[in-house]
Write a structure and sequence with these properties.
Layout (H helix, E strand, L loop, with lengths): L3 H40 L1 H12 E6 L6 E2 L5 E13 L9 H12 L3 H9 L9 E5 L3 H10 L6 E10 L7 H4 L2 E3 L2 H7 L9 E3 L2 H5 L1 H4 L4 E7 L5 E8 L7 E2 L4 H10 L6 E6 L6 E7 L14 H8 L21 H11 L8 E3 L2 E4 L2 E4 L7 E3 L1 H7 L2 H11 L1 H10 L18 E2 L2 H5 L14 H8 L5 E2 L2 H13 L2 E3 L16 E3 L4 H17 L14 E7 L8 E8 L6 E7 L10 H15 L3
Parallel strand pairs: 2-10
Antiparallel strand pairs: 1-8, 2-3, 3-4, 3-5, 6-7, 8-9, 11-12, 11-23, 13-16, 14-15, 17-18, 19-20, 21-22, 22-23
Helix pairs in contact: 10-20, 12-14, 12-15, 12-19, 13-19, 14-17
Length: 598
């Protein structure tokens, strides 16, 4: 049995241990505090100072002015304009304070109160702290606000710099447009100086030369208190404007090309310098107004109306592939002469139709043109002549000639990420399944070869590719690199302009045949007292997708020393290349000769 004295001694012993326990707890607590201070002040002091400064100092960003786009004579194709927007910072205006501020803003700036309510309900924008209440303010509205802004807590007027295209739809597909940066793009580009409020080139030249055009952000540094109120001005870092970019486009030719397309449901025109590859005009129809994308606020309904339009106005016909029809015949002629199987002086008998496989392939006049050579075959656009040449040399030889002329591959243009490579079918391609079937199930058949010989069914090219190929015939046998900006480079150097392996007799025969087309053939309508002698080829192509025929015409002028190549395409416009596409090219040539040397 435990005595009273033993119990007393045990209690005193326990009480004697309490100070030691408390001391240990205090030591542990102060040790943790000390470790935390070491972590905050010594190990991460610099980082925490930055974070504290960011809470105290606010940078009011100032967007850079994007570089202008100019035509080859210095005329402005794209610039920037200043617009003013009324903003509110929701954290500074409570729900109870809003009605009074709204009514005062509505009265002062003559804005509908219900519209201000709707804009406020959308919440903050991409910058994360303010909401746009009204855009495109007039100078009078801005002046009224600034006269009264001290009594309008939480509201502000700020300037925004937006891309402006003074000619509206003109050259829209070539120029492209700018659009607000997406969150994913911002994550990838923030380290390069992009801001969440930035706008970025989306397609065309705007995208291809983004780094050249964009400039650098600046801004004002302000000290704010815990309520976000400005305490003092700390400094200013001016924004840096982007660089102007002079393009090869000619405003007058571009306007003529778009006017030539005005009455067509769809189509494209490409005008090019055959010696250098400089693109003088690139038009596509239907088109769009790039100013649409410069608006600060756009509804989903407006976006859907443009992006989901059945006629696809955002789709560049100049860089999309279609059946070329008879404009392809010089390629077949080149293959025939280069193989030696059908030399330049060959004569072939043309007839009403020739049977390949189970189908009789006709000549377009239903009778043939008798015994003729290459020049008259191009002049009359004889199908049965080129069937014999194409079938005679085979698909591989035709494909080789096509590749030498730049088909079925990238052109090298700066906006090449938007272009279709087209298709030049051949037996190896068919053996692999034609891109949609299992290998070995879709063999190359005689009907394929006959169709390929005249640019039908298994051949699809872009207007840009056609202009590039005809430049080879125009400039003496060089494949040029098409481009929209010279960039101070030599575009006739070997790395940008390559010599095509072609016999002089082949080139001479094709050139002579193309000249006959215009002098006294299907392209006779191009003749005009105002124009120098020229050469070209008409084309009428069945649409392999099932629509009405396409109309084509490609030409170059002057014949002896060519300075311009024009490829004209009218989508699903039956009636023939000489009826629809040739007049389009002629309008461009007339505009070119009018301003030649200017």
């Amino acid at each position: 049995m435990t005595s009273f004295s033993d119990r007393r001694n045990a209690r005193y012993c326990g009480m004697g241990q309490q100070p030691a326990v408390i001391l240990l707890l205090l030591l542990a607590l102060f040790g943790a505090i000390g470790a935390r201070l070491v972590w905050l002040q010594l190990l991460h002091g610099a980082d925490n100072k930055v974070a504290a400064d960011e809470n105290r100092i606010r940078l009011m960003p100032r967007s850079p002015i994007r570089g202008r786009l100019l035509d080859r004579r210095g005329k402005v194709l794209a610039s920037s304009k200043l617009t003013y927007t009324l903003y509110i910072e929701p954290r500074l205006v409570s729900d109870a304070e809003w009605p009074a501020l709204r009514d005062r803003l509505a009265d002062l700036m003559q804005l509908p109160a219900d519209a201000l309510d709707r804009r406020r309900e959308r919440g903050v924008g991409k910058d994360g702290y303010r909401t746009a209440l009204a855009i495109g303010l007039t100078p009078e509205q801005v002046l009224r606000f600034r006269e009264q802004n001290l009594g309008l807590k939480g509201a502000s007027v700020d300037a925004d710099i937006l891309r402006h295209y003074p000619h509206g739809t003109l050259a829209a597909h070539a120029l492209g447009y700018t659009q607000p940066i997406t969150e994913n793009e911002y994550k990838n580009l923030a380290e390069k100086g992009y801001k969440i409020r930035d706008r970025i080139g989306r397609i065309g030249v705007e995208a291809a030369y983004e780094s050249h055009l964009r400039g650098k952000w600046g801004g004002q540094m302000l000290e704010v208190n815990a309520m976000g109120e400005v305490q003092r001005y700390l400094g200013n870092r001016p924004s840096k404007s982007g660089k102007d970019l002079q393009l090869t486009l000619d405003l007058n030719l571009q306007r003529a090309a778009e006017q030539a397309l005005a009455d067509k449901r769809g189509g494209a025109i490409v005008a090019m310098n055959p010696r250098t590859g400089a693109i003088l005009a690139m038009a596509s129809r239907p088109t769009f107004d790039p100013n649409f994308f410069s608006k600060l606020i756009t509804t989903q309904k407006e976006y859907d109306a443009l992006f989901l339009a059945p006629n696809k106005p955002l789709f560049s016909r100049a860089m999309n592939a279609y059946d070329p029809g008879s404009t392809w015949k010089p390629v077949t002629g080149m293959a025939g002469m280069e193989t030696g199987k059908f030399p330049p002086k060959v004569k072939l008998t043309t007839t009403s139709c020739i049977t390949y496989g189970g189908h009789c392939f006709p000549d377009h006049n239903g009778a043939g043109f008798g015994v003729i050579g290459y020049e008259d075959a191009l002049r009359f656009s004889s199908n049965t002549f080129f069937y014999q040449v194409g079938v005679g040399v085979g698909s591989r030889a035709l494909y080789k000639a096509a590749r030498q002329l730049g088909f079925d591959g990238p052109s090298g243009i700066e906006i090449g990420y938007e272009e279709s490579y087209g298709l030049v079918g051949h037996e190896d391609w068919a053996a692999k399944g034609r891109g949609w079937a299992d290998p070995g199930t879709t063999p190359w058949i005689p009907e394929d070869m006959a169709s390929a010989s005249i640019g039908q069914s298994v051949v699809q090219i872009t207007p840009l590719q056609l202009a590039r190929a005809y430049s080879v015939f125009a400039n003496g046998g060089y494949l040029v690199t098409p481009h929209l900006a010279d960039q101070g480079l030599d575009w006739t150097s070997p790395e940008r302009r390559t010599k095509v392996e072609m016999k002089p007799s082949t080139l001479q025969t094709i050139r002579a045949g193309l000249r006959k087309v215009v002098a006294d053939g299907t392209g006779y309508g191009l003749n005009d007292p105002a124009l120098p002698p020229s050469a070209g080829k008409t084309g009428t192509a069945e649409d392999s997708t099932g629509g009405p025929d396409h109309a084509w015409f490609a030409c170059f002028a002057p014949y002896d020393t060519p300075e311009i190549v024009v490829a004209a395409f009218a989508e699903n416009t039956p009636g023939g290349g000489s009826v629809h596409a040739l007049p389009m090219a002629k309008k461009v040539l007339l505009a070119w000769i009018k301003n030649r040397g200017a």
